[in-house]
Predict the structure of EamA domain-containing protein.
Amino acid sequence: MTPKDIFLAIIIIFAWGFNFVIIKLGVHDIPPFLLGALRFICVAFPAILFIPRPKIPLHLIAFYGLTLCFGQFALLFLAIHLGMPAGVASLVLQSQAFFTILLSYLFLKEAIKLPQIIGMCVALLGLVTLASSQYMQHTQTIIPIFPFFLVLTASFSWAMGNICNKIILKTGQTNTLSLVTWGGLFPIIPFLLCSFIFEGKAQILHSLSHFSVKDLIIVLYLSMISSLIGYSLWGYLLNKYETWKVAPLTLLVPIIGLFSAFIFLHEVLSIQQLIGTFIVIFGLCINVFGSRILQKFKAIYG
């Protein structure tokens, strides 16, 4: 990778990692479903007036938007609103890698390799370690069970969006910015409906009437930096380089998420939570690098 592209990759990873701190700050002032609606209103408008619709069936764009955009972020925002630590959420959400493997096997008939199975088992051990930490005494950062499983469900929704994305890529070349923009159109109504049903008209009006400059910066960060700019630059890197050169960089997202949550939100993990975190990251590393290490081992030792 060229120095310019390495710099772009670093910007993306930091933007996505810090994204979880921004979400935590956002749901403190704005109800989670309303925040989701505002985010994707800014993702879709006015961009769809200037960016042509992807040349793929509309139902694929809709499924992409409802899984990767609505399902993932509705559950993630709600989980963080209900007390899920932002840093730990950034890590647990990476379970999407393993759900994607399982769904690819079930629906796309892609083979599951031994390193992926080992990686899943190791990461599962780490997730259990994290989830059980709430029963330990002297834990400064509590990981509540219900929000924990909400984030896991969010990662499953992300994985379904990944499967849809794989199907879209098989239909031909698709512009990432176009897909993100038009895909962002479909979660707006579900978010607004959820906001009216679960958060209520009074809370919505109160949030909008007290909308501050800080709230505007949060919404613009989530929509412009994290979604439009982040995914567009990521698509540029994936189109320019082999996947194996770019994809491992996503392992840095939860590390940035955990570190930024520690710095800005004072989320301090216990020893057990740190152990669980390292186990999950180790499982993710096995999933990403395991096959190549195994191939090199076979090439050397036959």
Summary: The chain has one domain: 3-301. The chain has a mean pLDDT of 91. The CA atoms of residues 33 and 198 lie 9 Å apart. The radius of gyration is 19 Å.
